[in-house]
Amino acid sequence: MLIPIGIGLLRPLISSKSRLTYSGIFRGFASSTSQRTSDRQSIKKDDEKEAETNFGFKYVPESMKEKLVGQVFTNVASKYDVMNDAMSLGIHRLWKDYFIRTMAPGPGTKLLDVAGGTGDIAMGFLNYCKEIHGDTSAQVTLLDINPKMLDVGRERFNKTPYNQTSQIQFEIGNAENLSTISSNSFDVYTIAFGIRNCTHIDRVLSEAYRVLRPGGRFMCLEFGKVQNPIISSIYNLYSFQIIPVLGQVIAADRDSYQYLVESIQRFPSQDKFTEMIKDTGFTVIDKGWEDLTFGISAIHSGFKL
Amino acid sequence: MEGLIGRSSKIMLQRIQTKSIIKPNLLNLRPHRSFSYSVSAKLINSNVESNEQKETSRIPLNLVHSEILRASLSFVPKYGWSVESLSHGANSLGYPSVSHGLFPRGGVELIEWFLEDSRRKMVNELIDKMDGLKIHQKIRLACITRLNYTKPYVKKWSEALAIMAQPNNVQTSIEHLAKLVDDMWYLAGDKSADVSNIIMYRDVQNIMDTFLNIPMMNWYTKRGSLAVIYSSTELYMTQDISPDYTGTFQFLDHRLQDIATFGRVVGEIDTFVGFVTKSLVGVLASGLEILINKVATPEL
């Protein structure tokens, strides 16, 4: 416990560039300064007028969440993949691989990868089609709200044979309002570890329903709630004690990773999220979700029929 | 008589009676079955799928599911009972290939649907054609009709048997076989359950003895033996190269004769039942063996 406090006190010395600059309150082990208390009071006045939503364990006005999340991801973009490997001990690769195998796309499938960011799913999808079917007609549109994350994705794809082909397209867009995407145009819609960052999940789901073809599949890979109490306590310990520290040490940004673990707690449980998917109009098969690693993450699936 | 009827038997009797109200059929009573389904209800009620919602086999509820499965069957000779067939089937209807995800267990769902569909087709086809035939002729006709449905897929049938023999799927495949055999005997006008079928579970030291000596045992042995005959004939068919499958039908006739000869030996009943159950598992395992042999020596 002393180490996080020590790092927290040293933070002003360590991280000068990547400090979150929003006027909200950020919680760390360092105590809040008077500057921050006055900001807290100004936020309170705004709260009375607008509906609030969660940003980690804090509540912020709805209009602000997008901006705050944008700042988080702008800060973490360059170290995103490294941090994923460090935090999940590489297990996220297994999750994403299993995710694509469950999808088992055939030749010529068109995928819309929303909140695709650095392109893990898109890359895995194209590789799967090439290796399993020898197919080069599969297409993926990688959509993200954050230009910095897309830039990192573009750089990654530059080193692959898919570079400059029609197989991969990059687009900036908001999952809640896919204005550039026409209806009934994609075979599969995926959103991996992105939907909990969206302000209005129901709008994301209805947009997903709109852009899918009849028979198309909505797939969502997201963190979930762990049922087993022993694993749950170990997982919570790991999330709240170790991950923010890793964030500080590797990416010099503790707060973003604090937001990450808090947002996982705030996201609805697997069955509630499945209800939301059903309410949108998707057909859900059997349970509707599959737990991975004791429920630490889960694959949700629905069909537009 | 009331004092002798145990409470569990009373409940069973009530359940049986309510069933016979719903389905007007030739039989007044049916022995308590571990599989719950009703043949005659299917025959009256054209909307089969809503009836079967409560049943143990997972029949797709949605019309789209059945459409895709039916379309996928035509791809089975080329791609086998697999996700690929389902993908191509979905594609042929204009759905994207990822629609195969509607069937999370993959090829097995296609096999199960095929078994269910063929059984229904058999019943619908034969319900009018059974007049004037003797019982063994009716059984023979039912078996032949059902075998004919497997003919288009016979080259891939050993693969289907191997999939069905996997531990995950053994239970449902045995259920399908049991339902098939029950339907065949129903079509043949099986009246072996006409006698009063109340079992007394109380005051019985050796349940197996009591169980085996009552007339209802006939119901189980008939279905058990027909299950073995039918499945071994189907297995024979997978490697039959005679023109027009005449070899298969001869095999069927021989097996039916065997049962007619040996089935009446009452004293051997307990070993016979054991034999039937072991044979069933053995038949499924033989399917696996045949498939392995086929893989080892690929045919042209």
From TrEMBL, chain A:
Catalytic activity: a 2-methoxy-6-(all-trans-polyprenyl)benzene-1,4-diol + S-adenosyl-L-methionine = a 5-methoxy-2-methyl-3-(all-trans-polyprenyl)benzene-1,4-diol + S-adenosyl-L-homocysteine + H(+)
PROSITE patterns registered for this protein in UniProt: SAM_MT_UBIE, UBIE_1, UBIE_2
InterPro entries in the cross-refs: SAM-dependent_MTases_sf, UbiE/COQ5_MeTrFase, UbiE/COQ5_MeTrFase_CS
Subcellular location: Mitochondrion inner membrane
Keyword list, A-Z: Membrane, Methyltransferase, Mitochondrion, Mitochondrion inner membrane, S-adenosyl-L-methionine, Transferase, Ubiquinone, Ubiquinone biosynthesis
Domain of life: Eukaryota
Predominant subcellular localization, coarse grouping: mitochondrion
Keyword Phosphoprotein among UniProt keywords: no
EC number: 2.1.1.201
Keyword Membrane: yes
Pathway assigned in UniProt: Cofactor biosynthesis; ubiquinone biosynthesis
Binding site for S-adenosyl-L-methionine: 118, 144, 174-175
GO BP annotations listed: methylation
Any GO CC annotation of this UniProt entry: extrinsic component of mitochondrial inner membrane
Entry's Gene Ontology molecular function annotations: 2-methoxy-6-polyprenyl-1,4-benzoquinol methyltransferase activity
Topological category with respect to the lipid bilayer: Peripheral membrane protein
Subunit structure: Component of a multi-subunit COQ enzyme complex, composed of at least COQ3, COQ4, COQ5, COQ6, COQ7 and COQ9.
Function summary: Methyltransferase required for the conversion of 2-polyprenyl-6-methoxy-1,4-benzoquinol (DDMQH2) to 2-polyprenyl-3-methyl-6-methoxy-1,4-benzoquinol (DMQH2).
Family, as annotated: Belongs to the class I-like SAM-binding methyltransferase superfamily. MenG/UbiE family.
HAMAP family per the UniProt record, alphabetical: MenG_UbiE_methyltr
Protein name as catalogued: 2-methoxy-6-polyprenyl-1,4-benzoquinol methylase, mitochondrial
Native species: Gigaspora margarita
UniProtKB/TrEMBL annotation, chain B:
COQ9 C-terminal domain location: 170-196, 217-263
Family matches, as Gene3D superfamilies: Tetracycline Repressor, domain 2 (1.10.357.10)
Compartment list: Mitochondrion
One Pfam family per UniProt: COQ9_N
Keywords: Lipid-binding, Mitochondrion, Transit peptide, Ubiquinone biosynthesis
Domain of life, source organism: Eukaryota
Boundaries of every Ubiquinone biosynthesis protein COQ9 HTH domain copy: 64-90
Record pathway: Cofactor biosynthesis; ubiquinone biosynthesis
NCBIfam families in the record: diverge_rpsU
PANTHER family: UBIQUINONE BIOSYNTHESIS PROTEIN COQ9, MITOCHONDRIAL
Family the UniProt entry places it in: Belongs to the COQ9 family.
Role: Membrane-associated protein that warps the membrane surface to access and bind aromatic isoprenes with high specificity, including ubiquinone (CoQ) isoprene intermediates and presents them directly to Coq7, therefore facilitating the Coq7-mediated hydroxylase step. Participates in the biosynthesis of coenzyme Q, also named ubiquinone, an essential lipid-soluble electron transporter for aerobic cellular respiration.
Protein name per Swiss-Prot or TrEMBL: Ubiquinone biosynthesis protein
Species: Gigaspora margarita
